[in-house]
Amino acid sequence: MMKAIASHEGGLTWQQAVKKVIRNVMVEYYRAVPSLRSPFYMLKLIETYRRMLHPHLFESPIHYYTVLAKITDHLLQFFTSGAEAQRSPLLLFAQATYRHGKGRGKTNVDIDFVYEEDGTYTMRKLLLEDAPSFVYHYAQIAPAACKQTFGFYPKKIEFCSLLTGERMVETTDTFQLILVT
Predict the structure, then answer these.
(1) Do residues 3 and 23 touch, judged by C-beta distance below 8 A?
(2) Which candidate, 135, 122, 119, places its Cα nearest to that of 89?
(3) pLDDT digits (tens, 9 = 90+) for 79-102
(4) Residue 177 falls within a domain, yes or no?
(5) Would 4 be classed as within a structural domain?
(6) Which domain of life is it from (predicted)?
């Protein structure tokens, strides 16, 4: 049974609530066999899970409906094309841990999707905010965290903005490697 996501003092932000809905939609979407993955199926899942969002989490009703429309449009754009619908992620909403070195601590990294094709790994990160500093930091640490946690090093990271529809691809060899073993 679905529980509504409500905000209490110190509770969830609209971004956190939307991320939970997106996670539920995408987990269900990828549970389906590829032949059932379609724009209609995605819309059905979004309609089911959007009921978990309370409009009062947003700045206004217009903000609520604008975010919902943009996210719907861009999830359809990024995940329901013929080739995309046939892909299944190797990792889906996993967490990797980057260990900074002996006695220097660790950082947990949320991994949204990892796809493997012909021995090459691609990460995909969904964004609700366009923050260049986040993209830079994530591209620096996430590949190393994947290597330490899962044993592979992704060759590229796709950043997909669900509010603007922009897709940015970073190849991991363009960044200074910070892998510590």
Answers:
(1) no
(2) 122
(3) 999 889 999 999 999 999 988 877
(4) no
(5) no
(6) Bacteria
